[in-house]
């Protein structure tokens, strides 16, 4: 797994915390597991299959240029994981 994607995931969590509420579970473990499908959040992991590409399968669905500035699946599935842990732990 490329190191830059781990850094991106940390920046993603920090952005969630900045724009919403403090994340009280930052010391809990969440794993990023490569999978043959796009992604899904699970109890203690986020499965990921976007090929470590920016956008959604390497494309910009917004057609604005912003979609290629970040890895959509890491942000999307991490948001699900953040909400789940924020409200259900």
Explain what the structure shows.
With 89 residues, this protein is of the alpha+beta class. Helix content is 38%, strand content 12%. It is built from two helices and three strands. The protein has helices at residues 3-19, 72-88; strands spanning 31-34, 39-41, 45-48. The chain has a three-stranded mixed β-sheet with strand order 1-3-2, covered by helices on one side. The longest helix is centred in the first third of the chain and has 17 residues, at 3-19.
Biggest β-sheet: strands ordered side by side in the sheet? 1-3-2
- The unreliable regions are none
* Secondary-structure class: alpha+beta
Task: State the helical fraction.
Answer: 25-40%
Break the fold down into its secondary structure elements and pairings:
Elements: H1 3-19, E1 31-34, E2 39-41, E3 45-48, H2 72-88
Parallel strand pairs: 1-3
Antiparallel strand pairs: 2-3
Helix pairs in contact: 1-2
Primary descriptors:
single chain, 89 residues, alpha+beta, three-stranded mixed β-sheet
Offer a concise description of the structure.
The protein has 89 residues and is an alpha+beta fold. The chain has helices at 3-19, 72-88, and strands at residues 31-34, 39-41, 45-48.
